[in-house]
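queue> holo job accepted (iron/sulfur cluster)
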Amino acid sequence: MQERPVRDYFRNIWLTVYTILVGMRISLKYCFAKTVTLQYPDVAPALMPRYRGFHFYEAEKCIACDLCAKACPIDCIYIEKTGPRKLDKATGIAGGGLMTRYAIDYSKCMFCALCIDPCPTECIHMGNLHDHSGYTRESMIVEFTELAKQGLQTPQPLWMQKEKMPAWAAERKQEWVDFKHSKDKLTGQDDARRDEMVKAIAD
Ligand code: SF4
Ligand code: SF4
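queue> job finished
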């Protein structure tokens, strides 16, 4: 009668030691594996070349045709204009009516990119911005026409508005300010592009 409790006692000790060893074996394996943790924000996040980040929008080329909004499966693109707009193929700039609003609600957007392909003037694109932090739901609605008035094509998250930021972030911000992602007839003519962006927007 006394043998079984003694045997169970030692068996429990063995099982405890064994399970610790099994657990430690897995931990030890990862101790020597290649590190995958990224020291963000000090180190830039590694984005794939076709990463679908926050959009960039070229107001001066937009003809307000609504095709992007119609293609959006969750209706989170809002477009308002004073009249129809037409693209001048020679200059690559749209004219006619003015854009009063082009906005995307990022509290709904699922970054599916379905709005990109139907655009006849290729003025809406998925960008490489991965973060748009804010303090309210309303701040997740990006008013691209308001950005265009400031000469911007894409939103600037809070960390991009700080004076001190990691070198990679400053570089990325400058890329956007310099329209490095806009490949069209205004490439390299930054001031002309800013003028056209403002001209496309109604106050
Ligand atoms: S990425 Fe998709 S969900 Fe977001 S605005 Fe475009 S179509 Fe709509
Ligand atoms: S972004 Fe393109 S598809 Fe959308 S309204 Fe402007 S021109 Fe049309």
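queue> Residues 3-31 form the longest helix (29 residues).
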